[in-house]
Amino acid sequence: MVSLVMWNTASPLDNKDQHPDNAVLQHALGTAYAAWQSFEGFLKATDKATLEWRYYNDTKCWLAKVQVKKKTFIWIKAHEGYFRCAFHFASEFKDEILQSSLAETLIERFSQSSTGKKNGTVTVFVKGEADLLPFEELFRLKRLYYFGKV
After folding, report:
1. Domain count within the chain
2. Residue 13 burial (C-beta neighbours within 10 Å; 0-12, 13-18, 19+)
């Protein structure tokens, strides 16, 4: 089941001087930290996936990006009790999203975010390990999107 939470909420990682190490993430995420650890394990098992935290002055917060072969697969923002993962796709990739095995709620989010726009986003709000279920399919779609193969 995919959790729904508010999009524009303050993050415990808004402090520029406090790098989001494991202690900071554990404090901020609370019970969602177990899901974060599973997510990190998923990334380590994924060929050549790297995670990098960086403070962005335009958003005034720390964001992480996950890259594979220098292509950004996910943007991540940690919040109090959950983390949000955004997968961006060009609108012309809509057919692949619609034909995927993603949950209807995620497909609907992409459709709503891409209508009349150049890009669309599949956003996953992770509060527990069950929220990580779509990640394998999303990574498959990103590989197809960037590299033309799975």
Report:
1. 1
2. buried
